[in-house]
Amino acid sequence: MLASLTRLQRYYLLYTGGFLVFVGVLAVLEQHGMPARWIGYSFVFLTISMYAVIGIMSRTADVSEFYVAGRRVPAVFNGMATGADWVSAASFVGLAGTLYLSGYQGLAFVLGWTGGFVLVALLLAPYLRRFGEFTIPDFLGARYGGNAIRLVAVGAVVLTSFVYVVAQVYGVGVITSRFVSLQFEVGIFVGLAGILVCSFLGGMRAVTWTQVAQYVILIVAYLTPVAMLSWSVTGVPVPQVVYGMVLQQVQQREDKLFDSPAELEVRRLYRERAKEYEQKMMDLPDSLSGERERLSSAINALKAGDGQTKELVALERQRRDLPQDEGQARLRWEAARVAAAEASVAPIHHAAAFPVDEVDGTWSQRINFLALVFCLTVGTAAMPHLLMRYYTTPSVREARESVFWSLLFILALYMTAPAYAVFVKHEVLTHLVGIPIADLPGWVVAWGRVGLVSYEDINRDGILQLAELTLNPDVIVLATPEIAGMPYVVSGLVAAGGLAAALSAADALLLTLSSSLSHDAYYRVFRPATSTQLRLVISKLLLLIIAVLAAAVASQKPGTILSMVAWAFSIAGSAFFPALVLGIFWRRATRAGALAGMIVGLSVAVYYILRIEFDGLTWLGMSGLRMQPWFQIKSTAAGIFGVAAGFAAIVTVSLCTKTPEKEVEHFLDAIRRGSPAKDSRW
User: Fold this and answer.
1) Higher local confidence (pLDDT), 400 or 642
2) pTM of the predicted model, to two decimals?
3) Backbone angles phi, psi at 622, to 5 degrees
C-alpha cells in the first residue's frame, strides 16, 4: 500500500504516525509522574523544532521558490497548507469561543468564511493563476497600469496583513504564557522564533511544507478534547452527531438559571455600577479629585484606628491605581462602564437566533449577522495571503482543485466548532456556575493570571453566579481539557495545536507583507534593476522588522483574536474586492476608477473601525473620538460600508474617465483563455 503513495505522501504519513506516538509516550509518562510543566515544554518546543527542521530543509535562494514555491505544489497539499493557513489562531482559538458567547450569531463566521471560498473558486483563483507572477499588487498593476495603483495596493496589503498577523502573534503569546509559564510579552517574542525560521529561510516553499505538517497537528489537537468530552457526556465520541442532544440540556439549564433571583440581583448591581461610572464621567474633573480624597480619608481612618493590614493595602492600591488626569480617567471609566453594562444584560439563549423582543434590537442583530457574513465572504475572496496560495499550483485546474481540498480540510474544524461551544457551555453551566467561590477549580485562577478569565462576587454571597463570571472567547478551546478534567497531556496537545494554527497563518502573512514591500514596492516601482539576491535580502530584512513590530503591537492586547481578524477581513474586502472583481469582469474599469475605489473603500473601513472601537488615542492625548454606529452595525462589519463605497467610486470615476486602452482588452482576453503575453507595464 505504501508503495502506491507518492514520496511526499509517505513522508507526511510517517510524520503523522510519529506525532501520534509522541503523544502516546507523553501520556504514559504523565501516568508515571511527569510534571505538567514538562509536558507543556515538550509539546511546544518539540513541535516548533520540527517546523524549524522543515524550514531549514526547505531553504532557498530562488525567487520563484521563495515567492510561489516554484509553482510545483500539488492540489491536495496546497489545500492542506491553505487549510492550516486559513484556520489560524482565529478559527482554532476564537471561533468556538465566539459561538460559546453569542450562540447562533457566531455562525456568521462559519457561513462567511465558507462562502468566501466559493467566490475564490468562481471569481478569482483561475484568473490569478493564469496571470502568474507573484502577488496581488502584481495583478492590479498589470490590469490597470501605473505605479500609483501598485503602491496603494501595497499599502492595503501591509495594513490588512499587519492587523491579521497581530492577532496571530497575540494567540502565540496567550498559549506560551499559559502552557510554558512565560510572561505574556516574553511568550510573544519566543513564539516569533518559530515563525521566523520558516518564512525567513525558505519563503513560500518552506511555509507551504511547514503548514502541511502544522495542519496534521492542529486538526488532531482540535478534535481530540471535544471527542473525549462527548464520550464523557453522551457515551458517543462523535460530537458533531450528538451535540444537538446536549444543546437541549443546555437550554433546560439556561431556562432555570437566567431568571433566578440571584442572577437578577447580580445584573441589577452591575446596572447600578454602570450608572455610577456614567455619573463619574459627567462630573469630571471634580469626581476624580473627590475619589482621591475619599480614598485618602479612608486610609487615614484605618491607620488611626489600627485597621487590618489587608484592607489598608487594598485601599492604598486603589489610590495608587487611580487615573492620573481627566483624559485617562475618562478612558478608564468608560471601559469600566461598558464592562458593567454588558454584565447587566440578560444572557442570550444559545439556540435563539434573534432573541431580543424590541423591534430595534431584533433588527440590529439581524443586520449585524448579515453584514458580518457579507464582510467575511468578500474579505475571504480578497485576502492577499490566501490568494497568493493559488499562484503555487502547477496549473489552473489544480488551482480550482485546491479550493475544493481547502474547503474539505477546513470543514473538519468548522463542523466541530459548534459542538465545542455546546459541550463547554454544558460543563460551565452544570459544574461551575452555582458553586462556592472558595471551591473554584484551579483552571479559573490559572487562566485569570493570563487575563482571560475573571470573576467578582459583587453580591457578596460567596456563590459564583453566571453574571459574575467573565470568560474571554479566546480561552474556551485552550481551557477545554482543564474544564472537563482531562489529563494534562491533552492540554499540552491543544496548546501545540493552537500554536501550529497561529504560526501557520503568521508565516504566510509575514511572507505576504515582506513580499509586497520588497517585490511590489522596492523592485517594481523604485529599483527595477535590483538583483535577485538583493531582493531576497531586502525581503528577509523587512520580514524581521515587521515581525518585531507585530509582536510589539500584540503585547498591548488591542482586542480579541476574532475581532482583530474580522477587522482585517473588512479592510481587505474594502480595498481589494471591488478592484479585483471589476478588473476581471468589467472592461470599462479604469486606472483612475480603481485607484479611487481602493482609496475610498480602504479609508471608509479604517475610519469606521477607529471611530467605533477606540474612544481615544492616549499616545496622542486624544479622547472622546467614539461615535455611534451607522445603522447599529458593529466595527467587525465595517467592510459593508467600505465595499459599497469602493464599488461606487470605481464605477463613477471609470464612467467619467477615458475608456481603457486596447491592451487592457487583450490582457483580459488572455487571462480568461490562457497565459497572457507580458508587456512593459509588468
Assistant:
1) 642
2) 0.81
3) -105, 140
